[in-house]
Amino acid sequence: MNTLHNAVWLYLGSEARNGEEIAAFVDWCGRNRVGKALVHLSLGGSADESTERRIAALAEACEGKGIELHGMVSTLHRRLNDKNKLPFADPACYCVDAHGISNYEEPICGHGYVLDPRHPDVVRTVSEQCAELLRRYPGLSGIHLDFIRYYHYESKLTIDTKSAGHWIGLPKAGQSIRLETQDGVRTTYFIEEARNRYNDPPVGDKLVLSRSYRYCFCDDCLAGFETFSGIAMPASLPDTAAKAGWLLGEHPAEWAEYRAGIVTDLVGSIRAAIRRERPDAQLSAAIWYNAPYGNELRGEPLRPESEFECFGQKWWEWVRRGYVDFVCPMDYWLKPGSFGGVVDGQIRKTENRVPVYAGLLKTPEYEIDKAGYEEYARRAAAGGAAGICFFHYGSWKQLL
Ligand SMILES: [Zn+2]
Question: Rounded to the nearest whole angstrom, what is the distance from the C-alpha of residue 151 to the centroid of ligand 1?
Fold first, then answer.
């Protein structure tokens, strides 16, 4: 029935605000063979009539052109400035990093809250909220999971301390140091190296600060790992940081499997919840090709399966178990050649069980022209992708 072959992410901020913009959007989809529109919606919260009317109008216009509309949600990440509006009051629902710092206490950049995908309340509530979206917006064909993963980043600051003066005597390796910006956002770092050339006169060299945003090392996740793997952590490990260091050093493979299994189970729970709500509802996911992504921009090599190891996205297992109906890998910031290689690998991993829409990003920072787009589209088709997933309508509508 649906013979169109591309997909697109749509953000409602400045798009599809009225009948005219909705008509322009579906025309654009028709011109660019877009058969799946993935519209960003919030999980939880109360229904608001204007969004309901807008989605209903969008769904009706899409249906008239044979375009499926899917609700895209930020599954495990919430961006909030007001802690009182958090979806869970219990700090145990938020991840704890490899240093033992709770994301509830120190959200990423002051506003990024990452939910613990193992916590039973998170699993139940997120699954129910996905089903609730289908009730609230009956025009949706399914749910598209964005941020279905652990947050992960190895943050490093290298500071030139040559002219830092007598302050160079202060930082000591192993200590923590807190950086606070004017708006009151505090970020804890750990001093990896404090190298000086002279104490007198004070001539520093460099100060290296690091912070390992690896999740989740809360007590419940650590206990769950012991049950899952049958591996007991030595009782001598004094704190979370020591336990995390031991796990990552001694049992990285088992730890990666455990975490990925937690995310896979959450995908399965969401799948079950939306199918209970509506048996023909589809589930799909946005997935990464590398962790951290954007490696080519930093001149770093692609690390195969790093999305599994670091983000906990063993997404081919979601495919194998029939949890997802299609996937949209976010193959961004890659030159056409490497994009093609990444798509090839992703198609192999799906074993042709579900369609793959290769995500292609165009922004003012990373521009792609018409000829460039055609080259990417050729590579995606050659690799066996069903089509391109445009990120996002607002940035592509000017070009195509
Ligand atoms: Zn945890």
Answer: 12
